[in-house]
Amino acid sequence: MEAVPSNPEASSLYQSLSTGDRLETRLLTVMPGSTEDPIECALHTVSLDNAPEYNSVSYVWGNGNERSLTHVFNPETCSSYEISIPITAAQSIRRLRLADKPHCLWIDAVCIDQADLSERSHQVANMRRVYAKARANMVQLGHADFGTATLAVRSIHAVGKEIQDESSALGGLRSALYRNRVPVHIEDPLRATIDVDALAALLSSRSVASLYLDDLQTVDLSIADT
Fold first, then answer.
1. Which region among 17-31, 35-49, 101-115, 147-161 has the lowest average model confidence (pLDDT)?
2. Which of 86, 165, 171, 197 has its CA 20 to 30 A from that of 122?
3. How many CA atoms lie within 13 A of 225 on its CB side?
4. Domain residue extents for the chain
């Protein structure tokens, strides 16, 4: 993904980041607004050691050639800049915008200077720390039908809860059987109520197939209407 300034002066949006022990990154503060309002946001340079509370965002890459122009204010230069980012990144920012208060996000398409290969390499190498410091890691699974997506996510949560509830007991039993060289074959039918059709629709989509979920500490499978 590449954030391309729409004019040469837009490169001033990005100031150099520290690459020493005091790891710096950028956070995007998205101003409140309704669904149809233009996106208003500001980009701040912060140290991860004392960064304000923020949520990191993972989103579907989609077609990198489909772009959206986004206006970003830089308080360090007191100027606004227009950059081109993947349309899926812009859609994610819009969907995660709150109606009544600012929302602080880390999203790679804006928070990393994609035109600076050295910065991009260094930031990607430290993404584990960026995700670990986040209050929650929010995943945008594309833009499926709202009702279908809601049912699918509820099913995922139901299955996850059952696995969490049962994992300790089953893990202890499996360990005991293994220590005593007893062949392990446990059939424990799923009791959670799931919507198979909704899950099939979500998991068969190209969006989910291209989603990268490695190293996420906490995943918030949030659903937002457009």
1. 147-161
2. 86
3. 3
4. 4-140, 146-204
Q: Encoding tokens for residue 134?
A: 């986040």
Residue 47 in contact with residue 20, Cβ under 8 Å?
A: no
Q: What is the pLDDT of residues 117-138, one digit of tens each?
A: 999 999 999 999 999 999 998 8
In 3-state terms, what secondary structure has residue 25?
A: strand
SS3 198: helix
Q: Are 63 and 103 in contact (CB under 8 A)?
A: no
Token reading at 131: 């995700």
Q: What is the DSSP string of 74-100?
A: ETTTTEEEEEEEEHHHHHHHHHH--SS
Phi and psi dihedrals of 94, rounded to 5? -65, -40
Task: Specify whether the CB–CB gap between 187 and 205 falls below 8 A.
Answer: no
Residues 6 or more apart in contact with residue 168 via CB below 8 angstroms: none
DSSP 27-79: EEEEPP--TTSPP-EEEEEEEGGGPPP-EEEEE----TT-EEEEEEEETTTTE
- Rounded CA separation 82/95 (Å): 20
Q: pTM here?
A: 0.67
